[in-house]
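assembly run, all chains below
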Amino acid sequence: MRERWRSRSAFVMAAIGSAVGLGNIWRFPYVCYQNGGGAFLIPYLVALFTVGIPLLIVEFSIGQRFDSAAPRSFSLVNRRWEWAGWWAVAAAFIIAVYYSVIMAWCLCYLSHSLGLSWGADAPAFFLQFLGKTSSPFALGGLNLQIVFALLFVWTAIYLILYKGVKSIEWAIALTVPLPTLLLLVLAVRGITLPGALEGLEFYLTPNFAKLSSPSVWLAAYAQIFFSLSLAQGIMIVYASYLRKKDDITNNAIITALADGGIAFLAGFAVFSVLGYLSHTTGVPVEEAAGSGIGLAFITYPTAISHLPVAAALFGAIFFLVLLTFGLNSAFSMVESVSGGVVEKWGLSKPRITFVICLLGFLLSVPLATGAGSYWVDIADHFISNFGLVFVGLMECVVFGYVLGTEHIRRQVNRTSDLWLGRWWDWLIKIVAPVILVFIAAASFVELLAEGYEGLPTGALMAGGGMVVLSLVAAIWLMKRRAP
Amino acid sequence: MMSGGAIAMLIVGCVVFYGGLAWCIYRALRGRSRRLKENEDRR
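ok done. output:
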């Protein structure tokens, strides 16, 4: 008999934990600042309600309807489409591998923050910590500190998952509220620092003229799509543990608003501290502002060093927030993979979870070399912008057209508190696929025109190869016979 | 001091994200208490 969530709140917390990841902390505030400040909330909310929530409803309802992970769900719609489910699972596995490396960095920085080891020169410390080489093809040495951190991360993922839903419920009771509260602490501390309001001014001041630019709208849709853990089979497998009578629509809206709310809060924690950094060092906020790895491991540590009191404590809190939010997302990705494998081959879940975690650990070890940060960046760019977008497109086609949105809508409306109208069908059949095609096309044109981060063509081709490899692996997995 | 525009967007963000979240949770709780009452009535 299939496991079930003990309560509705357990499912919602797990979905929020999966959706809220590193991107909420280090991507949203900067994307917001770059694309019109406070005015960006308008395209962001439009994207949330026209694509984010509708696709989340599809994934929740498919999981609940078929009681299965992504591969079997696609297969139950039509056997020929099973590969699309495996593609989602393969993408989730690749993301889990490089995500674990970033979490390992966070774990190392958590210990470094206790002694503020980066000193006055955080950029140099980060390069030294990574042992970063001059090219993605020059591997350099293996950083044992990162390898041990990786071992810790993958062990934690295994321990959270091996008992199935029960152990996930136990983990999310801690790993969702704790980092949210700590983020609130960081935001409150940040806002009370001198110069914080100037930083927040950059984050929130609306520039409505920017809304006429299509790139701003595309950025909003991309942010929503990548932030909600869509197209990785995660929400499908989590929803497969729901009971048939459980609500879908309201749960999807709660998940999406909590994801956006945490990202909005993260903006206060980040930009208030950048304002303070600008106030103390004289570096303008627009120069200090950044996103991704640079913000987390260089700019924020620099700002933390300038705090008047308890700098080490706030540094540790920041990296603990990143680590716990990242862990929630990582174990949900592994759950998506193990769910698919267990259903197809009927293997023991603890055993297959162990094998996946071991494989994930072994594949992440090469990323602990001096070239690792290049490959983390390349994998993230290609799997997100192409792999996930294509899988999302497949979901719109298979569930929207082959299964039919009317069937899904009727099923959702039977159990949900909030009613879906026919407009929802058009969002899944027309709006979402068109937007996804635009995201992939814009990324492809940008890649051809500008390359990516000055990386050599061979590295970019390897990135494209990862997407192709994940597709080939998906087709291969589909063709393996179930016993 | 923050500009009027920034304060307005701060209010919009808080109302939509946190107000919206609170409203959805309220609906969920109301639905739950209604279902519990229906179950009691059936008994």
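Helices of chain B lie at 4-42.

Chain B touches chain A at residues 1-3, 5-10, 12-14, 16-18, 20-21, 24-25, 27-28, 31-32 (CB under 8 Å).

not gonna interpret more than that til we talk
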